[in-house]
């Protein structure tokens, strides 16, 4: 009876060691994924900032083109200028908060 008990205990110890080893591997993998996730978040944030900057530049280029269109689309130009002024006002209001 004690031999059977000893074998059962050995099997339990072996299984426990396997579980501990697997747990360690999973924690290492989790840490790796967390690091990768943070890196990807930073890249996404940088990409979003670049996207916003390019959109602003595009708007400026469009506005410049409408000014050089020899009087054409003056109404559109005024609308765009008014929109830009409102955006600037909103930014100033946010800064003052």
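Sequence proposed for the structure above (97 residues):
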């Amino acid at each position: 009876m004690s031999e059977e008990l000893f074998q059962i205990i050995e099997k339990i110890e072996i299984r426990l060691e396997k579980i501990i080893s697997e747990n360690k591997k999973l924690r290492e993998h989790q840490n790796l994924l967390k690091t990768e996730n943070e890196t990807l978040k930073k890249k996404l944030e940088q990409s979003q900032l670049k996207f916003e900057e390019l959109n602003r530049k595009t708007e400026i280029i469009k506005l410049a083109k409408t000014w050089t269109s020899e009087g054409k689309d003056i109404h559109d130009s005024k609308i765009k200028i008014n929109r830009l002024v409102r955006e600037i006002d909103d930014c100033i209001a946010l800064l003052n908060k």
